[in-house]
Amino acid sequence: MPLFETCIHDSHVKLGAKMVDFAGWHMPIQYTSIVSEHNSVRERVGIFDVSHMGQIFVSGKESSEFLSYVTTWNISRLSDGDCRYCHILNDEGKIIDDTIVYTFDQENYMLVPNASMISIVYDWLLLKSDSFDVDITNKSNDYFCLAVQGPESLRLLRQFFNLSITPFKLIKSENLIISGTGYTGEKGYEIMGPTSECLSIWKSFIEMGAQPIGLGARDTLRLEKGYLLSGTDFNGNQTPLESGYSWVIDWNHDFIGKDKLEVQKNSRYDTLSGILLEERGVLRPGLPVFFEGKRLSELTSGSLSPILKRGIGLSYVQLPVGSAVKVQIRNKQLKGRVVQTPFL
Questions:
Q1: Strands 294-305 and 310-317: what pairing?
Q2: Label partner for 316 (CA 20 to 30 A): which of 12, 52, 195, 328?
Q3: What's the DSSP call for residue 166?
Q4: Helix or strand or coil: residue 180?
Q5: E strand or H helix that includes residue 275
Q6: Is the pTM of this model over 0.70?
Q7: Res. 69 pLDDT band, cuts 50 70 90
Q8: Domains of the chain, with CATH numbers?
């Protein structure tokens, strides 16, 4: 089956990017090296093509009530221009996907699901919307998304758009949606709009000094901050409580899966925790984690932190911070410990 391509796929190829299959999309994993691209975002500014992400629009008189029901947050508490990170759960309280809800006004919203979950989230919203006066439209194929991230991102945003945006707020500028959001833990912004406008904006930001950044550095950047990766750190079997993201839940409203979470929060369960390697080595997803000689779990995420220059990973364990563990790499068990995320 042929891979999907974003609207600036050919530009990535011309820039010499190493292209890979990512969730069915032909995407740039790196242009130069993951470490140099990572450091560019931490120290200066980078631009990512994340047009594989989805855009699902929800409108209608009962949009606020509907989105409050299908997400973990009480959307009626949001004001026009607010962006809110939350989880979409199934009836068992397990995470289907994480998303940001963009509030245009009290009857018009947009959700951005992960690339591999677009059709699943869209179908789930349709399934649960029967008793609500809402209209749900999947416009993912019509929109691009570029992320400008790093300490100098605001300077470039002002230079190009002559505006500034505070974190987790949005501005609509003609047919573009510009928000103070990102996935790196740095100051940053995301620009969405019709695919026809993507290439000119991409080239302009590069000309202004933004370095093109691939998905490899996007992964190390988000991991240093302990951000979840859909399909990896949660895969349909974990709840927000287990993932360590209880803060995405507004308990003062009814939502799908709430009854299951209320039971779980009074019980014992594994939680996604940081694992910091204390010996030289690179952590990878799937590596087994041992505690007191017994295999306890495995890493959901793992990499080498370019900033800490240490192996870092995430794993579901039931151990206090500071606990000594070992991670098996090939035939050797290396020392590590449980730490609080973010790693930086």
A1: antiparallel
A2: 52
A3: -
A4: coil
A5: strand 271-277
A6: yes
A7: very high
A8: 9-51+141-224 (3.30.1360.120), 56-138 (3.30.70.1400), 270-339 (2.40.30.110)
